[in-house]
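Repro:
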Amino acid sequence: MQRNVFSLFNIHRIFLSGFLIETKKETYDFLEKIVLRTLSGILEIPRSRICSSAVNGKEALLGAAYYGNHPEQFTERVSRGSYAVQVRGYKCQEFEMDVKKNISGMELKGGKDMKNDIYNEEAANAFIDESKPVQLYYQASYNQSLEDNSSLISPGKVMLFISRGDKISAHNEMHGVAKRFYAKEECVVYVAIYSSENSTSPKSNSNVDLTKFDKIHQFELYIKRDKDDPTTTDPGSRLYFDVCLKFDKEEFRFEALPCLKLGHRIPEFRSRDEYLVANIYGDRDRIKIGNIEIVPIEANVLQVADS
């Protein structure tokens, strides 16, 4: 155990929390000294690095109280990598005659799955016309009706999803990080996903330099109107699609989803990526809970002391 621990970690402090046994103070102090001396010998670290409870074993209770009052101060993870997305859209070539015949047959047959079947047939046979790019737009989360020059996505633009070292909040853990885009005409959209081990922090929605990024996946989406949905057929209507980054314990998942709920679900992209534990306190923070103060004693190391 000792060999494995010291090969993987650089131990600055070991904190003991809670109670060993309910007994008289003199007996408890004697037993605690034995435990400290034994740990020091087994792990071969100085006794001074092992800290017994300074608040009578109430660290967990005090931490829970502080978290309840200040949940914004905590995060479970930070991102190990930087992730970015690039979207490109093209008009489709005219469908071949056999595809048109198949679609006509589906329309004559009807049925509750007709629209799904037609969408799947078109999506499988939609070939792009590279000479006819389609303008795509980014929808700002703070103003969904906004459309200005910042909404336009220029050719080749790459947008950052999350940078290495960024905090992953509880909300991000549950819902992921998403960006919404849209087109104003039917098209095929390519969504390229890039990753990097380097941190990068461009301004919001500005272009990302791909020099240190690797392309790890590409989605292909068939974006079309639904004649039964007025939000997609009215003049100037937007055809939306979402790109989402979701976090699991030992991997991340990318999804690309047309907001039109037709056809087969596009397979998600998964890749192993263990997220780093975040330092939830700044090195200079002094946090008080009642008469207890948590103060740092060196970089990334905390101690609990009576105030």
